[in-house]
Specification:
Keywords: Aminotransferase, Glutamine amidotransferase, Repeat, Transferase. The protein is of the alpha/beta class and 365 residues long. It contains 14 helices and twelve strands. Helix content is 44%, strand content 17%.
Length: 365
């Protein structure tokens, strides 16, 4: 049942406010994150010296957001490793390394094997899985289920944002275990997390505006997506989504790195999506955007809030994102990028839910 939408992907995008709520709400007690039901001991969260996230594809991109959160808000070093590469790089994991395996299906063999390897090295482990009772859930010491419900479209949307929701909760639980935040800081963070569904609804109401933005990309051969920090992490996922279902070549690039690399590939024919949501990075991001504009690029700007911009005319499109605290902005941005990929694929007449050569679950290494 596609819920009246032409494809499951659209239905699953629209479900996000609800399933985020269903993932977050049961894990809040007295305004604080709570993993008693999962049995996760605070001692484990307090004692690890580093964290290693293992995952593939979209789940790995969720891990990258988790890395930013945990490093900046908790101060623990986090590595995010592609599960398929993990064992072949002589990984340094031991009982002081908390391993977090992230997987929608819970059956991805690369992730499962990497997790088993880490457990043999003595690492404590938590998995974040969507499918109840899946192999990865069974192979890890503790499991936190995302309550996204069945995800049918091959390109992941609601599984990804519910993985993020769990990572927000886990970060806050680490702060408790390590006695890091003030009551005020915890309260503000948890209130912001609970505001995510309403903010997502707000973005979903702008579907048609986002559809018009997607239309400007229909005939593009290449697309670039640029941003820094968390904006870059979310663009890696947005770019993957566009590639997966529209077959347009897209590159997510850290804006500061462009000038050291492939800026020469950006021409007047290349749409560039720029995301600017992090206050402390804003002025640098805007000056990197000027560099591509001076090469004639048509820049689609996704920016937080209503602030005035110099020369509104030079932007190909501007989308104003609802305002959240910086660390939560990936949530509204994800929706915009998912919808852009969706509409490009839809308007090209492609099979959005079943892109060629891609399987929902991959059980070969
Ligand atoms: C890929 C899927 O094969 O596996 C991606 O096509 C997915 O959409 C990746 O992100 C990882 O899957 P899972 O189930 O481990 O999250």
């Amino acid at each position: 049942d596609k819920g009246g939408y032409p494809f499951y992907m659209e239905k699953e995008i629209m479900e996000q406010p609800r399933v985020i709520g269903e993932t977050v709400k049961p894990r809040i007690k007295d305004g604080k994150p709570d993993f008693t039901a999962e049995g996760i001991p605070d001692e484990m969260l307090a004692s690890c010296r580093r964290i290693c996230v293992i995952a593939c594809g979209t789940a790995m991109h969720a891990g990258l957001v988790g890395k930013s959160l945990i490093q900046s808000l908790i101060g623990i070093h986090v590595d995010v490793v592609m599960a398929s590469e993990f064992m072949y790089n002589d990984p340094i994991v031991d009982k002081t390394t908390l391993v977090i395996a992230i997987s929608q299906s819970g059956e991805t063999i690369d992730t499962l094997e990497a997790l088993k390897f880490a457990r043999k090295c003595g690492s404590p482990s938590i998995s974040i899985v969507n499918v109840k009772g899946a192999s990865i859930a069974r192979a890890s010491e503790y499991v936190i289920y995302t309550n996204a419900g069945p995800e049918i479209a091959v390109a992941s949307t609601k599984a990804y944002t519910t993985q993020l929701a769990v990572l927000y909760l886990l970060t806050a639980r680490m702060a408790i275990a390590r006695k890091l935040w003030s009551d005020e800081q915890m309260k503000e963070y948890m209130e912001e997390l609970q505001r995510v569904p309403a903010v997502m609804e707000e973005v979903l109401k702008s579907k048609e505006e986002i559809h018009h933005i997607a239309d400007t990309m229909l005939n593009a051969r290449d697309v670039f997506m640029i941003g820094r920090g968390l904006d870059y992490s979310i663009l890696l996922e947005g770019s993957l989504k566009l590639k997966e279902i529209s077959y347009i070549h897209s590159e997510a690039y850290a804006s500061g790195e462009l000038k050291h690399g492939t800026i020469a590939l950006i021409t007047e024919e290349t749409p560039v999506i720029a995301v600017v949501t992090q206050d402390k990075l804003k002025s640098k991001e805007l000056s990197n955007i000027k560099e591509v504009q001076s090469r004639g690029a048509r820049v689609i700007l996704l920016i937080k809030g209503q602030e005035e911009l110099e020369q509104e005319k030079i932007w190909s499109r501007i989308f104003r994102l609802p305002v959240m605290k910086d660390e939560f902005m990936v949530m509204p941005v994800s929706i915009v990028l998912q919808l852009i990929a969706y509409y490009v694929s839809l308007d090209k007449g492609l099979d959005v839910d079943k892109p060629r050569n891609l399987a929902k679950v991959v059980t070969v290494e």
